[in-house]
From TrEMBL:
<dbReference type="InterPro" id="IPR015854">
    <property type="entry name" value="ABC_transpr_LolD-like"/>
</dbReference>
<keyword id="KW-0547">Nucleotide-binding</keyword>
<keyword id="KW-0813">Transport</keyword>
<dbReference type="InterPro" id="IPR017911">
    <property type="entry name" value="MacB-like_ATP-bd"/>
</dbReference>
<dbReference type="InterPro" id="IPR003439">
    <property type="entry name" value="ABC_transporter-like_ATP-bd"/>
</dbReference>
<dbReference type="Pfam" id="PF00005">
    <property type="entry name" value="ABC_tran"/>
</dbReference>
<feature type="domain" description="ABC transporter">
    <location>
        <begin position="11"/>
        <end position="236"/>
    </location>
</feature>
<dbReference type="InterPro" id="IPR003593">
    <property type="entry name" value="AAA+_ATPase"/>
</dbReference>
<keyword id="KW-0067">ATP-binding</keyword>
<dbReference type="InterPro" id="IPR027417">
    <property type="entry name" value="P-loop_NTPase"/>
</dbReference>
<dbReference type="GO" id="GO:0005524">
    <property type="term" value="F:ATP binding"/>
</dbReference>
<dbReference type="InterPro" id="IPR017871">
    <property type="entry name" value="ABC_transporter-like_CS"/>
</dbReference>
<protein>
    <submittedName>
        <fullName>ABC transporter ATP-binding protein</fullName>
    </submittedName>
</protein>
Amino acid sequence: MTATTATLQTLHVDDVHHVVPTVQGDLTLLHGASFTIAAGETAAIMGRSGSGKTTLLSIVGLMLRATRGEVVIAGQPTSRLSDAERARLRNQTLGFVFQGYSLVPHLTAAENVALPLSYGPAVSSAERRAAAQLLEMVGLGHAARRYPRHLSGGEQQRVAIARALVRSPGLLLADEPTGALDVATGEAVLDLLLDVARARGTSVLVVTHDEAVAARTGRRLLIVEGRLSEDQAACAP
Ligand SMILES: Nc1ncnc2c1ncn2[C@@H]1O[C@H](COP(=O)(O)OP(=O)(O)OP(=O)(O)O)[C@@H](O)[C@H]1O
Ligand SMILES: [Mg+2]
């Protein structure tokens, strides 16, 4: 296992509302979402297209400010922080995996994984080793020098997972990370994501349409037209 592990931390989302102005008047996208993800916990967010999943994840990821309510990450309430403070907290505590692999095409797999390290303070040799180790953990140690165009979709998404974990975030946010993959590859990639995250003590919040993917997490949260609830039926034995 890698020497670097995530700092355990909790996510609290408290009564988050999100309202956007439209030509027809204000539109409420989230109606008071509240939940807690404990340190090391994995949870799925499910709901139909347009129900507000990406909006919620963007607010938790500090990319979008809620109209009302609070997001507390690692004990830090975030609503009153400046944009710069939010960016710092995001870089220190959160990792992201999106549907499109968003790898940088002219960088190798290894360079893509190490990329977030270069945004922070000087990269240590321990961090470089951790990056190489992560690529091994996602089964792509042999492909370190390959460019994204020479990797399959599933392989590219595994590189993106390694990159999301390279700064040892306490919380990994994934928005339909397997949506562009075939079912079998998607499930394998998600298993890997959950295994690597669990091994490092990283909490995971994953948006998915896929029941099988959700079943691999510890919990399901359901959004219906901007209203969030715990999916109790799914939790029943
Ligand atoms: N800035 C905005 N202005 C107006 N409407 C918006 C804005 N952002 C999102 N929406 C609308 O809010 C709703 C929720 O969007 P969101 O992207 O969160 O849905 P989603 O659950 O992620 O859907 P999908 O499964 O298709 O990705 C959608 O109807 C979307 O069109
Ligand atoms: Mg979405």
